[in-house]
Amino acid sequence: MIKKLITCCLLALPVFGFCNVVSKNENPGIPVATPVDSSKGLKDYFAKYFTMGVAVSPRSLKTDEAGLVLKNFSSITPENAMKMGPIHPRENEYFWRDADSIVAFAKNNHLKIRGHNLCWHNQAPRWIFTNAAGDTVSKEVLLQRLKDHITTVVNRYKGSIYAWDVVNEAISDDPGEYLRNSTWLRICGEEYIAKAFAYAHEADPDALLFYNDYKEINPVKRDKIYQLVKSLKDAGVPIHGVGLQGHWSIYEPSETELTNTIKKFADLGLKIQITELDISAYKKEHGSRERRAEDNNTEFTPGKDAAQSEMYKRCFTVFEKYKKQITGITFWNISDRYSWLDNFPVRGRKDYPLLFDKNLQPKKAFWEVVKTVH
Ligand code: GLA
Fold it and tell me: Which residues does 265 contact at the CB level (< 8 Å), separation at least 6?
């Protein structure tokens, strides 16, 4: 009778707003649960550690994903809407609608905003590098255009955006090369990086300015990112933090790789943010490629689910050790309903990299992450 009563109570818990997270079961047959208050979202569990953020599109904020965002996150980042190409498609034309709608959503709901990004080799509009005749512009012209762009965008959202990714991915993936051989570098030389920070700081002296890059767990690339950020800091460039993107997978990083990475950047005395976190269900690849036969196997198996929760748990356990240096964690996309990884590195290969499934329900990884909080 008593057994029956307890079982009934436990089964009824979800109705009263609690979820059952089975911790240990000393009495097989009766589920023993740690009641987890399901009215709490990620941001609440992590309130004493980090600002929890997520990358969004204007469209996602008009769907039921908006509710999930509000419950779990206190910061948002426009996934694409503030990149130079989308927001500044022609020299004398800005396209504000999408970015404005994200900023309005954040303001109405008292969310913080991380701006992303002001200078990148990808998604840059072609006009910025060329003149009316189609010839490459001079360094002076390009730096002036960069200044105009940064000043206009940063000014428009001054006071609303607390942090900007100023320069994105300027480091080369080629182990023998320091800076990426981008059009920015070819026309301006290394100077464009420091200039971008100076322009952003001039436009909004209160905004926190970040350098942001990926493959940071690779020791060769990590050292180059470190070298760049350190040289900017030493030269007095207004840089306040380094963004580690965190596009990882169920196979990486190892605990040592992650610890070494965060330790290294913590040394700089700048803020660290994990800016684009996702844990792919596939082996990590950083370049797009053709689909192969094995890519048709896209099932998110229980084995992958378990490996992903372990990896998320590992990452958050390390993040929490460095809670003084890490000030924010942003997930790259909201739920497994949509991820940029569905089309990268293989077009149309479904991925499952986030903490919420396609039905917006918390995955095993979500509960593992929550359990790391002490
Ligand atoms: C990089 C960029 C992001 C985004 C992702 C893929 O990490 O910084 O803006 O484009 O790639 O979505």
Answer: 216, 226, 229, 242, 244, 272, 325
Tokens of 316: 């958050």
**Cα–Cα separations (whole angstroms), residue 48 to 112, 274, 321, 373:** 16, 16, 13, 9
Q: Atom of ligand 1 at shortest distance to CA of 344?
A: 6
Residue type, 85: G
CA–centroid distance, residue 122 to ligand 1 (Å): 9
Please give the model's pTM, rounded to 2 decimal places: 0.90
Q: Which residues are known to be catalytic?
A: 169, 276
Q: What is the pLDDT of residues 290-299, one digit of tens each?
A: 999 999 999 9
What is the signed CA dihedral for 303, 341, 153, 205, rounded to 10 degrees?
30
Residue nearest atom 3 in ligand 1 by C-alpha distance: 79
Residue 64, pLDDT above cutoff 50: yes
- Cα of 370 to ligand 1 centre, how many Å? 26
Are the C-beta atoms of 238 and 244 separated by less than 8 Å? Answer: no
Structure tokens at 312: 């998320």
Residues contacting residue 276 through CB under 8 Å, at least 6 positions apart: 55, 212, 214, 243, 245, 246, 247, 330, 331, 332
Q: Which residue lies with its CA nearest to atom 6 of ligand 1? A: 340
pLDDT (tens digit per residue) in 169-220: 999 999 999 999 999 999 999 999 999 999 999 999 999 999 999 999 999 9
With left for phi above 0 and alpha for psi between -120 and 50, is residue 269 left, alpha or beta?
left
| Burial (CB count within 10 angstroms: exposed 0-12, middle 13-18, buried 19+), residue 11 | exposed
Q: Which residues line ligand 1 (CB under 6 A)?
A: 116, 168, 214, 245, 276, 340
Q: Which of 351, 314, 317 is nearest to 332 (CA)?
A: 351
Q: Which pair of structure tokens corresponds to residue 295?
A: 């890519």
Query: Which of 244, 340, 342 is the best mutation target for the ligand 1 pocket, counting ligand atoms within 8 Å of the beta carbon and taking the most?
Result: 340
